Amino acid sequence: MICFETIKIENGKLLNLKYHQQRVDYTRKFLGFNDKLELKEQNFNLPQNGEFRLRVDYDKEIKSFTCRPCTCREFKEFRIVKSDIEYDCKYANRDELDALKVDEKEIIIVKNGLLADTTIANIAIRVDGIWLTPKTPLLLGTTRARLIDSGFLKCADLTLIDLKKAENFAIMNALIDFKVIRAEIEFELGLERTI
């Protein structure tokens, strides 16, 4: 099964490589490969000026890589979707994940009654002045891991009730880092709330 890693490049440097390497190591072990695939040893021929996104597709070995200018979509509307989807690794085939979306709105996945992720980012909410992220996300994100290690984020079992009382809402991934957004969230029965 092919997986991929998306790494932000800034002026020729791979950002937060330690966390990407940890996820590649975890993924390859999950897939049954015990040898090491060192990202820093690869010749990706990185652009030296500007911000780019490097996508590395791999399984036992690197299958391909592409480098493109870094562009990030804006997300303002979210819909709550309940699902028992499994997405333990960053699989190249995202059909099952993408099938959860019914329109242009991004989704917030609720799994086993707990908040998990969006389709492209981990989430965090600020409750009583503390930034919290789901203890059991769909995917162990690299930015999430870095912010937990720094003490900025705390892990918690979060429910829709927590989301409804949140002071702020943020999404995070390797390309956008941690971004607080003003979001309109569509809950069940058409109820909406802007955070």
The gist of it:
With 195 residues, the protein is α+β, with helices and mostly antiparallel strands. Helix content is 16%, strand content 36%.
Q: Give the class from helix and strand content and strand pairing.
A: alpha+beta
Integer count of domains: 2
The proportion of residues forming helix, as a percent range, comes to 10-25%
The share of residues in extended strands comes to 35-45%
**What is the fold named in CATH at topology level of the largest domain?**
D-amino Acid Aminotransferase, Chain A, domain 2
Count of runs of 4 or more consecutive helical residues: 4
Give an overview of the whole structure.
- The chain is an alpha+beta fold.
- 16% of the residues lie in helices and 36% in strands.
- The protein folds into 2 domains: 3-69, Aminotransferase class 4, branched-chain amino acid transferase, N-terminal domain (D-amino Acid Aminotransferase, Chain A, domain 1, 2-Layer Sandwich); 77-194, Alpha-Beta Barrel (D-amino Acid Aminotransferase, Chain A, domain 2).
- It has 4 helices and 14 strands.
- Strands 7-6-5-13-14 form a 5-stranded mixed sheet. Strands 10-9-8-11-12 form a 5-stranded mixed sheet, covered by helices on one side. Strands 2-1-3-4 form a 4-stranded antiparallel sheet.
Describe the secondary-structure layout.
Layout: E1 3-10, E2 13-14, H1 17-30, E3 51-58, E4 62-69, E5 77-82, H2 95-98, E6 106-111, E7 114-115, E8 122-127, E9 130-134, H3 142-149, E10 154-156, H4 160-164, E11 168-173, E12 177-181, E13 184-186, E14 192-194
Parallel strand pairs: 5-6, 5-13, 9-10
Antiparallel strand pairs: 1-2, 1-3, 3-4, 6-7, 8-9, 8-11, 11-12, 13-14
Helix pairs in contact: 1-3
